Amino acid sequence: MKRLACILILAGAAAWAAAETAPLPADCTVEVLVTSQRPDARFPWRREKPGVRQGYGVLVSPTRVITTDELVRNATFVEVRQPGRGRKWAARIIQADVRANAAVLDVSALPPDAPFKPVTLDDVVPRDEKMQIVMFDEAGQMKSSDGRITDASVESLPDAASSILLFKVLTDLKTDNQGLPVFHRGRLAGLVMDYDSEAQTSVVIPALILRQVLDDVANPPYEGLASAGLLWTTLVDPVKRRYLKLSNDNRGILVTRLLPGSGASQSLKPGDVIVSWDGKPIDSQGYYPDETYGRLLLTHLICGRHRPGDRVPVAIIRDGVAQEVQVTLSAHHDREALVPRNAEDEPVDYLLDGGLVLRELSLDYLRAFGAKWMVSANPRLVNLDLTRALMPDKPGQRIVVLSAVLPDPINIGYQGYHDEIVTKVNGQPVTNLDDVFAIVKRDGGVRRLSFDSTPLDLVLNPTGLADANHRLAQQYRIPHLMYHRPDTPSPTP
Amino acid sequence: MAIVLLLFGGVIATPVRAGLDYVRQSVVKIYVTIQREDYAQPWQAAPPQSASGSGFIVSGRRILSNAHVVSDARFIEVQREGDPRKYEATVLFAGHDCDLALLTVKDPLFFKGTRPLPFGRHLPTLKDEVIVLGYPMGGSRLSLTKGVVSRIDYSLYAHSGIDSHLVMQVDAAINPGNSGGPVLFDDRVIGLAFQGIAGAQNIGYAIPLPVLNHFLTDVADGTYDGYPELGVAHVDTRNPALRADLKLAEKQTGVAIAYVDPFGAAAGLLKPRDVLLTVDGLPIENDGSVRLDDTMVEYTELMERKQCGEKVRFDIWRDGAPLTLTIPLTNRADPFAFRYAYDRKPEFYTIGGLVFSPLSRGYLATLGGDLGSPATQRLLYCSQYAKLDGMYTNREQFVVLTTRLAHPVNTYCDGFLNQIVSSVNGMHIGRLSDLPLALTLATNGYHVIRFEGNDNPIILDARAATASAPEIMAQYGLPALSSLAREDAP
């Protein structure tokens, strides 16, 4: 009995001490309830079974909530409420950014008397500073615990090709809900995106990344995190350094590839050695000394501190001569890739004519072939993704694929075709599905497909086509025989 | 579906009585010591292993068995039922594309009192009862099982990994060790047991009579040429719109050529969009079948019955006009077929502890579960699409960095494994034997090794790389730095 009392007192003391060191911002956290539905990556007119997700978000202005992209991905309906309470209000996604794993919600449906108070962001949280991680019990009561950043490093996000600065925060709270806030001195220091139960650490998206997203949303059009558009490799090998006539000072990385159309492609060349970026020395593994977080990858200098369009000074060694160039940072648009990732799992464009399913090659399509997609998907398509995904020959080039043929009398003899790369439609070269839509609109349908693998075309009979399409839509229960997304998804402020 | 070869590597005991005495005398047990190549460490072979199979005596003091029973064999012995002696045997011919081999025994005593098994004149039909003889696991003496012919169809021959020929499926028990044993109908050989399906029951596969005859006819001139390869892929012409596009009249039937293999017999003769109307005078249906001996078979069956050097005649329809083509059948060496290789030392070349090998099916097999990574995916792609995607034009082989024997000279060369070499010191690498010459072209004392699809090269200090050789050989037990099929002196 005495023992128990003693424990209770200690627990109470800890909570009290935490509250005293940093008053926690009350009423800034909302519970976010998401109904989501992924499109079927193989049969794009289908959608998978709707699911429900629950997480949190933080009010950053009276009408804006920031949360994680992962939480609201493929949302069909989003609601917010006071944690654990009954009353819900509809919310709208203004912007979701897979590269920052952040999303901004419009919550103007909240009544003026709703019990919420926005919080401000804290961009710089030093490594050893105490932070407060919170979570909510079923009754909506906030529990908090102190935590410290044990690791701040540039890490790749599970769903994006890019990497961003992420904190790992050691905590005794099992914070496995997306979007739980982390506070520092009463301000928002970041959002929880993951929890590693073995290491007892929360993975946190830092406020400085969230800030980029919020600022971007406030100044449309939305561009996303900045990107340099360059691929590089380390220069640790002393033999390689001697071969490149570099001194043995452990400085510099080698530029291997520049993405077409990127800002860096205008001022850098493959073979350049980058020795400093934006005033920071770059070591032979691509790290720079960050004032706050120590040794960080160059990536953070690109996307953590600058916006697309900014110009940064870059010191390089080109052909043995040291010089300085200005690199304009650019925005990275997934659709500019030869093989887009479509990590957002957005509905993809498709055209179904005479049972022929035409679409563009994307990573989510290949991944739909299962965990071993690199072996089980079409080797030629996988190889295109692995070797040339970011390297179109010309802007706008993507891979048009005849992904499947839905059997119908009109396509008899063609029913074994699948995953063929289409080079021409009705005799006219196509570089993406937009071209296909234009040709089909002009000609009234697909008459002829040409492939890169054989001079033998696939020819359709125009007379029976309308009937066949009607029949196919009925038989296979396809609500729309095509989907063509708007040209530029206009970001609404 | 995992097809398993019925070679038995294990221990044995118990007899079965066969009624036909001379048959019992002529079905032999084959004992082999096999040593496979080690494609992961090509300078040495895999550990030797013992295995056993079956075979039967055919005319000319020869024993017919499976190629997979005697491939990579270091020592072969044969034994007759009821004779305690084992006789050393040697391989006369091995046909890896049809998994058949002919052996002989020097000692004339072995054949004394034996009679070659007679061959049947035609295949049995479905439901006909057949007998399988051989020396499967579970005993040491001759075993006999009975069953019916369940299916006769084209199927993959697992031994080469890529060839398909006629296969006879029987429901008689066929087990490891049965490989090479005869399948009899009316006391005559109509097949040779050779493979099964892992996990399936009552499914055994035999090489049917036509394939046995094809092999024996082929070797009659003293060399084995193998099956001719026409080398075309077709699509059927059932679609009216396609028929109109190919200007086919309503009554014309045939298949349209989609692809012509540059290493096939049809290369340069047939073209994509050609329509094959007849083969040796027999009309080809729109789905590719022809009526032969009152059964419908695929038109390629006619080529299956021919030997290299024979001809096949096609009536074709090209650009709306008829044409008759006579194509001499060949079987050209095709380095991009990626068959399993046997009885051949794998090639390799080592510089600075980096081991390079040509891409081969044997090497891909060593990767096993690692095949699903970006570097190995490219190997898989190249092995399947080398010809289709035109990668064969400037090379004979894909040269792969397979192993790094860690040594200070290559400390920073990790991360390049399983990548395909594109050039060395600026010289294009189209086969492994290009490496010795390319490595004489070091500039300023450095070797620059570039890989396909990788902008980051390996740089080696040329002098240090050469100097490291004795140390690396001693450290890793390499008897030699290279083994090349063709030594072109630099």
Feature tags:
heterodimer; A: 493 residues; alpha+beta; Thrombin, subunit H; Pdz3 Domain; 4 domains; eight-stranded antiparallel sheet; 19% helix; 35% strand; B: 490 residues; mainly beta; N-terminal domain of MutM-like DNA repair proteins; 3 domains; six-stranded antiparallel beta barrel; flat
- Radius of gyration of chain B over alpha carbons? 26 Å
How far is it from the N-terminal to the C-terminal residue of chain A, by CA?
60 Å
User: Mean of residue pLDDT of chain B?
Assistant: 91
The CATH class label of the largest domain in chain B is Mainly Beta
Q: How helix-rich are the residues of chain A, as a percent range?
A: 10-25%
End-to-end gap of chain B: 47 Å
Number of helices of chain B: 10
Q: How many separate helices of chain A?
A: 11
Structural class of chain B: mainly beta
Describe it:
The complex is a heterodimer of chains A (493) and B (490). With 493 residues, chain A is α+β, with helices and mostly antiparallel strands. In chain A, 19% of the residues lie in helices and 35% in strands. Chain A is built from eleven helices and 30 strands. With 490 residues, chain B is mainly beta. Chain B contains ten helices and 29 strands. Chain B has a six-stranded antiparallel beta barrel with strand order 8-9-10-13-12-11. Chain B has a six-stranded antiparallel β-barrel with strand order 2-3-4-7-6-5. In chain B, strands 14, 15, 16, 17, 20 and 21 form a six-stranded antiparallel sheet that branches. Chain B starts with a strand and ends in a 7-residue tail after the last strand. About 2% of the residues of chain B have low confidence. At the A-B interface, helix 4, strand 15, helix 9 and strand 29 of A face helix 4, strand 15, helix 7 and strand 28 of B.
